[in-house]
Amino acid sequence: MTLRQCVHWAAREGALWSTTDLALRWATHPPGVQPAHGATRLGMVRGFAQYCRALDAQTEVPPHGV
After folding, report:
1. Residue 61 domain-assigned?
2. Which of 19, 21, 42, 59 could make an SS bond with 53 (beta carbons 3.0 to 4.6 A apart)?
3. Is the Cβ–Cβ distance between 45 and 62 less than 8 Å?
């Protein structure tokens, strides 16, 4: 999965900005995704969220260890 796919998925979910809940749902989608793959996806979203946070204070950056 790419960051672009994540952005499209978030748009279909009706997200206006990134939240920790949204990031976790995407990282674990589809159900049954391997934990290592989900962790990689969450790390990618975390990095993007850090960038977006500088532009929009409503953006949540998922904490490490979730």
Report:
1. no
2. 59
3. yes
Q: How many residues are given for the chain? A: 66
Element holding 50 (H helix, E strand) = helix 35-53
Name the amino acid, one letter, at 62.
Answer: P
User: How many domains is the chain partitioned into structurally?
Assistant: 1
Per the structure, the complete domain to which residue 10 belongs is given by 3-53
pTM of the model: 0.85
- Residue 29 domain flag: yes
Which tokens in the block code for residue 31? 């159900």
pLDDT tens digit sequence for 9-56:
999 999 988 999 999 999 998 889 999 999 999 999 999 999 999 999
